[in-house]
Specification:
Length: 305
């Protein structure tokens, strides 16, 4: 098979991959076209994964072996593996009647995770490849700024929101994620995504409202104490009714704020953005970081409070 396909070239252009990554992808794809042994082992993993003959964990284990055998960086080979699945995924979207717009928005996550890998690991690639199982098994979709998937509410004893909506432990909900796309969490951007999610999922909830849930470091309630009042993170957090939260001495999500500098002591953390400055000063003062889990009940136009 041809590896450096027109589809891959179109995708890398459409999701705006940096030249360094595009060149590295082309180098490996061309090597696959020239090295029959490499290609046969790699292609087997691609085909068996997309045919569901391999789990994502088994596929990634095979890729680690292939990367070692053919002296390729495993993070970069993970990325090339995912790219080689994208054309078949587009065919499946079309078979299911899901729009190309949703497909391309969903595939933009490849850029987000690629840039995270370049920032934190110094190479073009993906260091969390198992995350992509939800996309390639078509259980997670990008609808505007956020990514959504059907899940169940997990809270012992259930929970009644302030608007009187009862969520039993195990109730159907829509879980959502916030990719590091670089798009600010403005009111317009957030509500556009909520409306898209309503249109996509409303029939599962009776048509008049949907229940959105999110667990994230962005929902740490003490953000109210140290983030600037004009912060879009605060506006996003205030969309939610926070069900529970936690904090820890170990800021496991520091890389999301500080990238390659995440392991530095607080007094050495960069302060070159408003968010970094606020977090660095908060941590330097001896405070912990944390996260939260919240719920939104949305009727297609507004959050029901």
């Amino acid at each position: 098979m041809v590896h450096l396909t027109q589809h891959i070239s179109t995708l890398t252009e459409k999701i705006r991959l940096p030249k360094e990554a595009v060149d590295k992808v082309a180098e490996i794809e061309n090597r696959l076209d020239l090295d029959k042994s490499f290609a046969e082992k790699f292609d087997r993993v691609v085909h068996e994964y997309m045919n569901q003959d391999l789990t994502i964990d088994d596929a990634l284990a095979s890729l680690r072996e292939i990367a070692e055998e053919f002296n390729e960086n495993v993070f970069t080979l993970n990325f090339v593996f995912l790219l080689n699945n994208t054309e078949e995924l587009l065919n499946r979207y079309r078979q299911e009647g899901i729009s190309d717009e949703i497909y391309w928005d969903t595939m933009d996550d490849l850029r987000c995770k690629l840039l995270e890998c370049m920032e934190c690991e110094g190479v073009p690639g993906i260091f969390v490849p198992s995350w992509y199982n939800g996309f390639f098994r078509m259980s997670r979709f990008a609808l505007g700024r956020f990514q959504y998937e059907i899940s169940v509410f997990k809270h012992p004893g259930g929970y009644t929101t302030k608007n009187g909506h009862f969520l039993d432990d195990g109730s159907l909900i829509i879980n959502f994620h916030i990719p590091s796309s670089g798009i600010s969490l403005t009111d317009e951007v957030r509500y556009d995504s909520y409306r898209r999610a309503f249109d996509f999922y409303k029939d599962l909830f009776g048509g008049d409202r949907i229940v959105l849930c999110c667990g994230s470091w962005l929902l740490y309630p003490k953000h109210e104490e140290f983030l600037p009042e004009n912060s879009n993170i605060l506006r996003f957090m205030r969309d939610f009714e926070i069900v529970r939260s936690a904090e820890s001495d170990d800021f496991g999500n520091a890389w999301r704020v500080f990238g390659r500098y995440a392991d530095l002591p607080p007094e050495e953390l960069p302060k070159d953005t408003a968010l970094r400055k606020a977090y660095a000063e908060w941590l330097e003062a001896g405070n912990n970081a944390g996260d939260g889990y919240g719920v939104i009940v949305f009727d297609g136009e507004k959050i029901i409070t």
